[in-house]
Amino acid sequence: MKSPALYRRRLIPDECIPLKDDIILECTSERIVTSWKALRPKKDLHHGYSCYFLREGIKVSKFYYEDGRLLYWYCDIVSYDYSPSDNTLIVTDLLADVIIYPDGFVKVVDLDEMVTALESRSLSLDALKSSLQRLNQLLSVIYAGRFNTLTSYIEAWESRG
After folding, report:
1. CB 12 within 8 A of CB 122
2. How far is CA 155 from the centre of its chain?
3. pTM more than 0.85
4. 131 exposed, middle or buried (CB, 10 Å; 0-12, 13-18, 19+)?
């Protein structure tokens, strides 16, 4: 697969942003691994890596402080829309997210936004169902102690320096 132009689409707020500064490290029919600097740097978040799991509908990211310390792992439930004619991949954030802190604490966030998006019709019922199924699959992997099967792709790139 030729590396596509990546876009991040959010439902809340409604926006679609080109990820033109992200560096695509690996691109296959199953996943895309990127490194990036924060689009809107925050007090803590500075840079990171992401692995887009194209079949599973999840994106796993490793967030870092500016000094290189791990902030946390951040998992987005997403959908993918690929346009072969212009080789673009739009990654739509389906709102449900999972944060895994360095101490192993797992936190599910933004479920309330799913209700807001459903009520405003920016999220369809089918997309809501799909998002919840993907969230359940992700949590099953995490709770079974197999999260490393998802993080290994990022860690392999990190080890290359």
Report:
1. yes
2. 16
3. yes
4. buried
Judge contact between 61 and 160, C-beta under 8 A: no
Cis peptide before 18, with omega less than 30 degrees from 0?
A: no
> Token digits for 43?
């007090």
* Run means of pLDDT, 10 residues per run, the chain, 161 residues: 92 95 95 92 88 97 94 97 96 97 97 95 95 98 98 93 66
Taking every pair of Cα atoms in the chain, the longest distance, rounded to a whole number of angstroms, is 45
Q: Strand, coil or helix: what is 147?
A: coil
Separation of alpha carbons 34 and 21, rounded Å: 10
| Residue ranges of E strands in the chain | 5-10, 15-18, 23-27, 31-37, 47-53, 58-64, 70-83, 88-100, 106-109
**Gap between the Cα atoms of 26 and 47, Å rounded:** 18
- The per-residue pLDDT for range 68-93, each reduced to its tens digit, is 999 999 999 999 999 999 999 999 99
